[in-house]
Design goal:
136 residues; single chain; 5-stranded antiparallel β-sheet; 5 strands
């Protein structure tokens, strides 16, 4: 189900908690909401739809995928950039890494380890920040 985007800075500043298989519907709702906003959005975190769980979704080319309880385990190639967010007006400066490695659960709650670089890595970092209560 497509959900409304939360813009309340006090809610978004709260840290999320790990998701469990009970949260499968949140994953579906988050993917549905991302797909409904693909014309101006490349990623979302569950708190953006009002759920404080460590779940993110990412649009990479024609694919959209979920990462449950993602943890960045390695990062390299720090750089400065500017980002926008559906939950905010305008853009803000931030520090990102060119290459990252992430441990996470996939949509079937199976353990995964992925290596990401460039734009996809930047999106993942932005959304994991959301889970940690950091809004750019």
């Amino acid at each position: 189900m497509v959900k409304k985007i939360v813009k309340d800075p006090l809610f978004l500043a709260q840290k999320s908690v790990d998701a469990t298989e009970v949260d499968k519907q949140v994953v579906t709702d988050l993917l549905d909401t991302l797909r409904a906003n693909l014309d101006h959005c490349v990623g979302m975190a569950a708190n953006m739809i009002g759920v404080k769980k460590n779940i993110i979704v990412v649009a990479a080319g024609p694919f959209q995928f979920a990462m449950i309880n993602p943890v960045i385990t390695k990062k390299s190639g720090a750089y400065q950039t500017e980002e926008g967010c559906l939950s905010l007006e305008g853009v803000r400066p931030c520090k990102r890494y060119q290459e990252i490695e992430v441990d996470y659960l996939d949509q079937s709650f199976k353990k995964q380890h992925g290596k990401y670089s460039g734009w996809t890595a930047q999106i993942i970092q932005h959304e994991i920040d959301h889970c940690n209560g950091i809004v750019i």
